[in-house]
Amino acid sequence: MIRQSEEPLTPAGRLFIQPETNISVICCLGTHQPLRIDAIKSVIADSVLAKHPRLSSILVVDKTGQEYWKKTEIEMDRHIILHNDPVEGAKDDQDATNILMADLAVSVPFETDKPLWEIHLLVSHKCVVIRAHHALGDGVSLLSFFLAMCRKADDPEKLPTMNSVGVHRRKGGEGAIGGVLWRLLKLVWFTVVFVVDFIARVLWVRDETTVVSGGAGVELWRRKLVTARFLIDDMKIVKKYIPNTVSLSL
């Protein structure tokens, strides 16, 4: 029987804890200033991160195989992991975080006797790597938790804000009844097409075997991350020549 302090996993949560789909969400934050370890621990301990029921519960599987979340006390020192020494083999700070994140992606499983999240502080590289199990939430929702712990530099009492996405309304009769019905018809049509295409690919399409095809257990091989850089001018050129595109700025 599930007690009041326990919460069953959602269907999505049960899917993500299966060995075949054991997925971690990894985020990286960098700063120009040195990391203040004591301040970081204090902020996290007093934040919603340490108080939210899902983020302060451990994953438990009972004798019948039923999975549920059980409320527990957070030991902050087990969740905040310090890396005082530079990452071996890293060319710069960015390369150091890529190496650590690639290693965390497959080689270090979560300990199930504590909530399934942790924060790695790369002191020498002034970076923070956040890792959480996908059963806790997706990248957007988890990053929102950490954003809620931040404050504006010019006003420490206010939360940071995000610029809204500018949407350009199309000219014409888009607001008329005919336009609404036409958009609805296209929505239904393309949904049917994409569903049929997806089912057909799952049933009949297979990747050809090549010299770089992975064998059994390829999902557990060591990962390597690289960072791609994009020039703002190039993005403006793309936006200029592709109609109805919008930009998102933080």
From TrEMBL:
Protein name in the entry: Uncharacterized protein
